[in-house]
């Protein structure tokens, strides 16, 4: 089944799989209950001389339809917990780090630059554009200058609010090169709908070359505030 | 007779500043229906913008500037007010204010509410809140534009939206409406606990009353939390405090915890009463006792209890500790169980029935059908990893409309159809309302079902022009399809409004019990006089669902009809008969 758009992060197949599992379980529940609803409505329509069945219920049935959904739901909960743990449990060790500072209506993307340190004069800072290397986990540190934004890359299945006053770390390991859109998923003001960025996943070699070019282009004026 | 109690009150005391629960209920009904027109109109504007972002609305010159969605800031305001009006000025007041007021005393055999003056105050305070909210459209800078959830810092600092007074008025309006809610809740709880007719044990109350009772408890417990959060937000805006501003040491996420601690129970405030009405309607028109009465009561209680420990499922991607997310996921999965129990019991009620397809019944069936979808789609969002993708997309927009339109509003349409004869003493035209129910069901599904598909593609909510994104461009035909369906859905409501108004004056006169139903309100005349019954309130001998009982030849057996050998009610409840 491919009802979801193509996923290009290591965890996107896990999320999609969970989606489809829930889709199957709820799909069955949907078909069965809707079919019964329409069938009963038709089968038990009023007819002259036919009296309704006088019954107040059935304890055994109540038990069945309490326990069965409960078991299914707990199963879905536990399965989801496993996937959630894989994504949120711990960030894979990596040197590849990016700081994203969201503001109305801009994604500021910051790389360490040549010295391997953030918040130094040689940081590479670009806007509404992010480049990531293929096959390597990248840690993304999300911050916000003003209001709540939400960093959303549909192709990665990655969404995380950027909250002023907090730094929230997420990670992604891309599995396919290409250009993917970044969107803001949390209402952040009149420009919310236009807060779009482009994310480019590159092979490690071209990525290094791109990084070098950026580092070479860093002007001292672009130093961050102390 | 009741006429002897009824002093000739001047018009203003009888219909405007009335203390009669029925008049107050009808006042709430009219107010909510008027706001529904406004809220629905705003939805049409939203759909125009999303379906046809390049085209100006044809009648844009007749709109206040603050409603022209072509300006993105105003688009935000329009959907914010669509939600705020629908939630705070339509669904909550129509369910609890209109039907809570009208039905509770009539269904439990009381002559009025416990505190009639407080009741009157509740309506007029609520009305003031609605008026303040509506006024925010006309102040400088326009109305609130931060979504109905009003997340700070966006809502706390005027510079972030450019809306100064409008947002403040919004906060004040919700505070006022919340106050009205609390007044109503106190009244409903007191009335139900103290003023039931002789023989009306708790487990003989119709499920509508149970649902309104549980809802009132939710309102009483949750609304003060919202009020405190709104108070802090108001102080942040006007007094320079920093409850939610990190620059002064405040916590941004605190708002979300407080807001959802109220607003998740509020979701149940907006659906439980409708579940109660639908249970009564399904039983009446299946001519069968409700299946599993006690299971229905306990599942209401279960939903209400669990409703207080699931709020975090709105915050999985908010920056809240992911471990907490897991805990909230499990509690959220568990709360689906009582909803499932209710659905199965509704199906059980239909099974073996002798179903009459009145408009009320059609709406109740539509409720069950759409609630199934809304309930099941909730499971996707409950799953923390799946929510990471579909959170804040059209998937949630589809889900919430399946619950709040498909659920609450079909419940409301069912309830209006069902109790209209009792409220106004006249019948609505059944044929017109049958067409209305069928068309509404069709267009509702055509409007909201495709939104699941938009959400699965990652379509963000609250964006004013989907065509700005490459990955959303292929979905634009679907957005247009949804918009056209929404316009047809809106147009269908004209049938209902016209029928409602026409029948007020020209409808066929209603009998006391046109549906051959069992509960006590049908033992009073249509419409019931002041103080509802004559010299004596009815005595209750049995539960409200004795349809097709073998004890009688007819297929119904009202709660207050004594049978030979019926035991006299074991306990007497004092019902103050105010002269």
Name the assembly state. Answer: heterodimer
Integer count of domains of chain A: 2
Low-confidence stretches of chain B: 1-5
* Global outline of chain A: elongated
Relevant CATH superfamily of chain B: Cytochrome c oxidase-like, subunit I domain
Main beta sheet of chain A: 5 strands, mixed
H/E topology pattern of chain A: HHEEEEEEEEEEH
How much beta of chain B, percentage-wise? under 5%
Mean pLDDT of chain B: 94
Can you identify the CATH superfamily of the largest domain in chain A?
Answer: Cupredoxins -  blue copper proteins
Q: If you compute it from the alpha carbons, what radius of gyration of chain A comes out, rounded to the nearest whole angstrom?
A: 25 Å
Average pLDDT number of chain A:
94
The CATH class designation of chain B is Mainly Alpha
Structural class of chain B: mainly alpha
| CATH architecture descriptor name of the largest domain in chain A | Sandwich
Number of strands of chain A: 10
Overall description:
- The complex is a heterodimer of chains A (226) and B (579).
- In chain A, a hairpin with a 4-residue loop joins strand 6 and strand 7 (158-162).
- Chain A has 2 domains: 12-88, Helix Hairpins (Orthogonal Bundle), CATH 1.10.287; 97-222, Cupredoxins -  blue copper proteins (Immunoglobulin-like).
- In chain A, helix 1 packs antiparallel against helix 2.
- Chain A starts with 11 loop residues before the first helix and ends in a 10-residue tail after the last helix.
- Chain A is built from 3 helices and 10 strands.
- By secondary structure, chain A is of the alpha+beta class.
- Chain B has a single domain (14-523), classed as Cytochrome C Oxidase, Chain A.
- In chain B, helix 7 (207-238) runs parallel beside helix 10 and helix 9 packs parallel to helix 11 (322-350).
- Chain B is mainly alpha-helical and 579 residues long.
- The longest helix of chain B has 37 residues, at 72-108.
- Classes of the chains: A alpha+beta (226), B mainly alpha (579).
- Chains A and B meet through helix 1, helix 2, strand 7 and strand 9 of A and helix 4, helix 11, helix 12 and helix 13 of B.
